[in-house]
Q: What sequence folds into this?
């Protein structure tokens, strides 16, 4: 599949071929139908978020359909339209960062779910 890859902060995205991901135990794969590009993605591309490493595939707000499930995930989910939230985890206890970024703290930045701009992405059920 094709993906737009950020190989270094501040550089243009580059179209690259990547293998289709396969879902592991407890995860499912989404065939992406739409992926938003938001201000967080622009911060990532511009290198304004500490702790993020490249290469990275921007895009973390997605709608699509489940097209494959891993072991332990109900096969009835295949074909279901789903939306993927922007954040995989926050601690819920830290004070908000500047710009009222929810409860995302700098230590959690690497936990942002990126790569939704791929054609397919695997996520926990």
A:
């Amino acid at each position: 599949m094709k993906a737009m890859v950020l190989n270094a902060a501040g550089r243009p995205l580059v179209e690259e071929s990547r293998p289709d991901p396969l879902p592991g135990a407890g995860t499912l794969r989404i065939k992406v139908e739409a992926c938003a590009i938001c201000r967080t993605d622009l911060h990532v591309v511009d290198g304004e978020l500490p702790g993020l490493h490249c290469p990275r595939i921007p895009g973390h707000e997605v709608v699509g359909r489940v097209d494959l499930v891993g072991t332990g995930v109900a096969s009835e989910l295949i074909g279901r339209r789903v939306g993927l939230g922007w954040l995989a985890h926050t601690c819920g206890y830290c004070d908000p960062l500047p710009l009222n970024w929810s409860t995302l703290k700098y230590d959690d930045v690497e936990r942002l779910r990126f790569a939704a701009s791929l054609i397919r992405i695997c996520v926990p059920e």
Notes: The first helix runs from residue 39 to 45. The CA atoms of residues 3 and 118 lie 5 Å apart. Helices lie at 39-45.
